[in-house]
Amino acid sequence: MGSVDLITSSHNSIREISDHIAGAILYVDAGCLEAFQLIGAFPLLLELGARAISSLENLSPLDAIVDWNNSLAEPATKIVIITSRLLSDAHRYILRCLITHRTVLHCAVFTSISEIAHSALIDSPLGPDAFHEYHSLLLQDYEEIVKRHEKEGLLTHRNSEHIQSPDSQNTKLSSEDNIWSGLDTSYANDPNIEASPSKRNFYADESVSKEDGRARLSISVNHFPMIICPISTRVFVLPSEGTVAESLLSNDNEESLSPGLPAISTGLPFDGEDVPPGAILTAHFLYHLADKMDLKMEIFSLGDTSKIIGKMLTDMSSLYDVSRRSKMSAGLLLIDRTIDLLTPCCHGDSFLDRLLSSLPRRERNSPAQVKSVQSSRDHSPVTVLRPPLDIKIPFDSILSKEGTEKRSDQIHESIIAFISGWNSGQPESDVPELANSNKLNSELGTLNGSFLSNYRGASYLEALLDRGAKDGALLIKKWLLEALQNEKLSMNSKARLGITSASELRAMVKKLARDQNSLIRNRGIIQLVLATEIALSEPHSSRWDAFVSAQKILSVSSSDTSQSLSSQIRDFINTSILVRSSQQDKMVGSSEGLLNFQDALLLSTIGYILAGENFPTAVSTGPFSWEEEHALKEAVVEAILERPSSAKLRFLHGLENDLEANSRKDDEKNENAAEKISDDFDDQWGSWDDDETDNQNEQSYGDMQLKLELRDRVDQLFKFFCKLSSLKWRNPVLKEGLTALSKLGSDTYSRKGLLYKLLSALLAKYDIPGLEYHSSAVGRFFKTGFGRFGLGQAKPSFGDQSVLFIFVVGGINSLEVREAMEAISENSRPDVELILSGTTLLTPDDMFNLMLGSSDSM
Known about the structure:
Largest sheet: 7 strands, mixed
CATH class of the largest domain: Alpha Beta
Strand content: 5-15%
Mean pLDDT: 76
Number of domains: 3
Radius of gyration: 30 Å
């Protein structure tokens, strides 16, 4: 058996559908686009003969004109659509795509959600034969629109007996655009369009219609499981805008911390109807991924949600696996993210984590365009908003000021000329405002996209995964020096030595990007250097260092007394009031490196988790005394009243406007008080009439009501904090296992995350309480049948497997990836192939948004 390579497996999956791709216009949705960027799939797709590759959500009739393979002699008759969403969610886009391109005769739809998963979701409109049902639904909806517009004379018949020649169709392509633009696509954009089985006849006749002689559209619906985002050949996460990552991992109940995180593990069994959709989809995804990679899974789980996923995986393996003997044996370990929230909340020594925390991300598609799986509870959020892996880098920073302005002007003029030429029949005043907008100018200097897992054979991200902050920057500098040497450019001798600085990297990368050819050749390393420059510059560098220092203070205080720890948390909250708003920071720059109120709340989260681990005797009522917690609450209330603009938080939802209004009234009151001081005392006395007194009383009453409501919200926040402090102790069996892990190893071991400790213990073949093994159907048969005669099957060990596959339900952190690699290295197991994965790639800011942010779901 060969070694596991996620990127190669993804490329091979694309090659398997090469017959569909050849000569077709390829449409991919946002989740699929994110995955294809990371694996570098676009050169492969063009090599396989794709005419064009376009966004499904932002399709245009002009997509048919683009042709990267010079086959415009014939109009496009094939479309391939690859989506990471449920078919019912992508239906409106698929339908709009078909009615936009009138020459298409064949459409192949590929979805990463399996046919069984479509029917397994309670609220899914598709049944057991989901793909065939959707095939009929799509065909009926399409033909209904076509017939409606044929009657109105807006659509040219596609006649199978009188097909126009390619040349004549090319000649008429531009002249017919005006006719086609009149086609009303509002039906396709209607959000009420659903693939509802109850409203359709699924098994309608699919033969060619003889009444109008028109060739019927050929549609196929298929499963494409390998839509993943590989960060390296052995590490991957799910697409941020795919259905699996966006689905709820916990329902709205007492044990839920966030819709995007598994519920707290209590050891109590799930009710069948209460299984969150994210758990169902994750189980089906992992099963088909393992099947695609020819892996035979021995399944282990840690945590309640992981246990449910493991059980579903085992049941599916028992039902559908028929060729397990020919597959490579692998151990699958499922872990609930909520068992260890401390590691992803902390700013650890991981270069990639620091890089991703400093870079702005691409904005997601408009939430209004996405219609996701409905929750069984009407008030529950529908979709978890995961941060995309696509990043934004200020590309113009490597160019001189004059060169940047010159190039921007040239691009700007070219766009205006193109739009003017396209609308040549219209006056110049009708040229779209896009060409003259500031938004266009801002986008010209930004390089959007994601890091490439593999760029020209260099696995940059894989090399950076196991690097700390300093080592990672030095490695980037080394690659940059090698690129300069390959380009035969002179280098400053000082650049070879010493600590890496942002200014030094900028000077070197400017030299490397001296011309367009060099820029293109070295695009991969230039992208990483620019990202590193941002991470090392202010205010990102100072903020990261301030977080690291604050975490050390909390860690030391947690080993002392609860009073010392609560005092430190209160100091962080009080200090955050002194930090100006982000806009003022940009203008003044005097408070760079200080932590704002949101940062103080993240530190409070860390403090409560540490308190729960170190002061377990008081978990039932909270880790701190009433006086200590009351002081913390008052500090939070004062911070919110002082800086209401920085309090865009979930627990304050609905109070934002009132807090802003109260802040403005306080400012006006202070201004009026300052003016009155300059007036004579007699004039002031004369102005104190009954009406003003009534207004003051009414205002005081309103302020009191606001403060009471705010205190109620803050009480809810601290109930959430107390819930975090009890994570380790809610499940007695799990508590025993985590306590046993914490006692293994030295002080350095104790500072590591759960994944490192768990992997080290399993490789050393320790028995971990709470770790459940899900035996296969054969294993259960031996246990209950032949086991009576002494022929029972021994429980396999996770550490004995040749391939170790770890999936963190809820998301994985870059620091955990680095520590897991250390665990493999320290246990002298070079023969082990480790695959690390999770729902999403988490940074500390992502964890804050999941637990306390204002927009973790919609």
